[in-house]
Amino acid sequence: MADLKVVTLGGGSGYTPELIDGFIRRHHELPVSEYWLVDIEAGKEKLDIVGALAQRMVKKAGISMTVHLTTDLDAALKGASFVTTQIRVGQLAARIQDEKIPLRYGVLGQETTGPGGFMKAQRTIPVLLDLCKKMERLCPDAWLINFTNPAGIVTEALAKHSPVKSIGICSGANSMMRDVAKAYSVDRDAVDARFIGLNHLIFADRIKVQGQDRTDDFIEKLAQGVGRHNLKNIPDVGLPAEFIRALRLYPLSYLKYYYLSREMVEHELDELKHSGTRGEQSLAIEKSLFCLYRDTTLCEKPAALSARGGALYSDTACSIISSIYNNKREIHIVNVPNQGATPDLPDTAVIETNAMIDASGAHPLRYGPLPRAVRGLIQSVKAFEELTVEAAVTGDRRTALLALASHPLVPSVAVAEAILRDYLHENRDFLPQYAR
After folding, report:
1. Separate counts of helices (H) and strands (E) for the chain
2. Which cofactor(s) are needed, names only (predicted)?
3. Could you tell me if 264 and 103 are in contact, meaning their C-beta atoms sit under 8 angstroms apart?
4. Beta bridge pairs of residue 202
5. Residues 17 and 301: beta-carbon distance below 8 Å
6. Phi, psi (deg, nearest 5) at residue 273
7. Is 434 an annotated catalytic residue?
8. Tell me: the pLDDT tens digits for 191-241?
9. Which contiguous run of DSSP H or E holds residue 195?
10. In whole angstroms, what is the distance from residue 353 CA to residue 198 CA?
11. Which pTM value belongs to this model?
């Protein structure tokens, strides 16, 4: 097999040691010879710190992989086989504003759900579409593996507006299956589940443990508080037991933003007073992580990285890249155009579901009609996502207003107008499409 050149945009991210660790552990099947970490000038200091740690990790592992650090995107992309994205346009300062502005109006302030996801997409989509234009010229056969949030919305923009081969990923489903494994005291590999929905809005309706259907049993465990899924970046507020039994689906933690919207907003407002938004908390975690990364004796991924909330991205990303590279025909949960998986959404709509991954990409498995209990929610949020993509590409304020006003967590058009006004003002330096 030929050696591989892999490029990561946002190479100075605190998450990068996760990816390095994943590539090191899979080097026997994924022989990455050149790994390029790319960042912008404003992120160069972090790139140098993270890159030095990556180089130490590779050296300790004793594998044949050269880690390059650069701000020259063209040089990095030339001849690449895979490009991964973990960028944050505007850095954490922009995320903090995304969270605080909706809270002014009593609306959820969260990075990817609701208005926060809308605003992050407006900054991110134009940047990644520009990346795709460069990929068409410099590495036309490369795969773009996107885990920049909001992953589903961004992946839909790429699928609709670029010919570049792309797949969106998220570690949420992987995390959910690990929680099932923990509930039954088995290894993660002993768990299989069927998922449907959108990024950060997925449900599992079939759960198998060691080949046996445990769906009803696990739902009852959830109702009793056993095996409850909760990501580190989401408040640990549980759903009522009778609702879990009625739903008879295993929801990702993010669904609490919809089913417990009032409680979650109240929790966020309380946190805002006492410990700041999640973005402000993440900023503090990031500072402590980079203090660790600066230690020249550190040669492995630090355990403290799990507090950042992205601990499973390396497993998810690297296993999917390996499945493409080695034509494994494995089943993974990815963000991919519907392509008939369910008749309840357009074929071009990006969904998050089980798909067979081979050398030609992701092929979603047929699911059928969406469960009645969640069909309306999924369709409503998908309409929001479609409008969000259109607004990001066109810079049309009316489309942007329609997007925000259509989200289930935005209570009125007047509130949508106020949030949009504040967002466009605070982000004017990152939104060239709205200046047209």
Report:
1. 16, 13
2. NAD(+)
3. no
4. 197
5. yes
6. -70, -35
7. no
8. 999 999 999 999 999 999 999 999 999 999 999 988 666 666 677 778 999
9. strand 191-198
10. 8
11. 0.95
